[in-house]
Amino acid sequence: MRVRSVSFSVLICLALCGPVALYLAERAGAAVPLWLTSEDANYLSGSEESANVAAVATLEGFETKAFQAAVETEVSAHVPAKASALLATAAWQRGAITASNVLFGWECYPTFYDSGIVDIPSESRLAEIAKKADEDITACARRVAAGMDALGREFPDRRFFVYLSPDTLNVSGTPTEGLVSNPLTYEGIQALFEEQDGAFQMIDGDVGYGDFKGQWFSTDHHWNNAGAYAAYCRIASALGFGDELLKPEGEVVYDEPAFYGALARQGLVTGYSDRIADYAFRDFPNLTVSINGNAASEEDVVHREMYAEGGWDANRYANRYAEYYHGDKGLIEFGNPDAPTDAELLIVTDSNSNSMERWLVAHYRTTYALDPRHASVTVGDFLEKHDGVTDVVFIMREANLLYETTEEALALS
Known about the structure:
By secondary structure, the chain is of the alpha/beta class.
C-alpha cells in the first residue's frame, strides 16, 4: 500500500511540475521540441497560447475571476505533450465508436464522443455534421437576402451576385444529411434567397457529392485547386466572361508539407491529409497588390516562392490553405493594368475566395476583396466611395454568409 501511495504521489508531483518546468525552459530560451510544447495542441484545439497573468494579478482581477482564467490559460498552455494526449484520447474513443458501429453499419460516425466532425472511412475523408434548418437560421437567411435585395435597389447601376460555396454541411447528397432531422440543404438556402424580388442574382454553386469529393479537400472545409477553378468558371461566366475564361496549362502539386485541414484538427484525426496544388497559366497578367492600404506583392497573396524553397511552417498542423494562399484580410486591392476594360469588381468574401480571387482579377482593371469579418466598413459605404465598381459578388460558405458580420456589412448607408 505504501509503494502504491508513493508511486501515485510521484506521478501527481510530475504532473504538477511539468507545466512549471516547461514554462521555465521556454523562458530560459531552451530549444524545446514542438511535440513537447503546447504549440501543436493550440493548432488542434484552437485555444489561446498564453495569457498575461501579471496584468490581472490584482484584487479586481481576482474578484472578476480574470486572474484565475489567466492562470488556467497559462497552465494549459504549458502542459507537456498536450497534443499527444488529445490525439491519444480521441483515438481510443474513435476505436470504441468504430467497434460499436459494427452493429449499426453507419456510413460515417463521430471522430470522438460529442465531436461535430465525422469520419467516412470508406472514402478516407472527414465531414461536418449537417445543421438543422431551424427558425433562427431560416430567419437569418431571410434577413441577409433582404439586405442584399435592398442594397441592389440602392445601387441600381451596379450588378449584384451571390455565390454560396457548398461544403460537407449542405452539399447535395452529403452522407451527414441523414444524421439530423430537417437538415439545412444547399437547395433550401437557395430557395430562401430566391424569395426576394431579385435585385441580385444567385449563381448556382451546388455540385453532386460525387463531384464534390474531387473538388474539396478531404480534411478541410475549403475547396481544393480543382474546386476553386470550377467556382471561378461559374462565377466568371455569370459575370459575362464565359468566352474569356483562363485556361490552365499545368498544375503544381506540392508533395510537402502534408495539409491536416480544419476538419482533421477539430476532429483530432491524423490518419488523413491533403496536398496543396496550384494551376499555372500562360500570359497571366502582372498584378499590383495592396493589403489594408499597404503596398504588397503577388507573393503576399500566393506564396509560390516560399513553398518552392521549403519555407513553410514547421508545425505539422499549420493551416496550409492560409499559408500557401493568404490569411484573411480586411481589404485586398488588386490592379490589372493589362485589363481590356476599366470595370471594377468588389468581392465580398470569406476565406473561400483566397485561392481563386486572382483569377477573377484577370477580367477587371481593379478588384477589391472585402472580408466583413475583418473590415469595419459596410458594403454600401464602400460602394459610395468607389463609384468605379460595376459588379459585386458575394462568395461565402453558409457559416459566414448567414452570420451577423454579413448582416452588419449589409447595413445601408
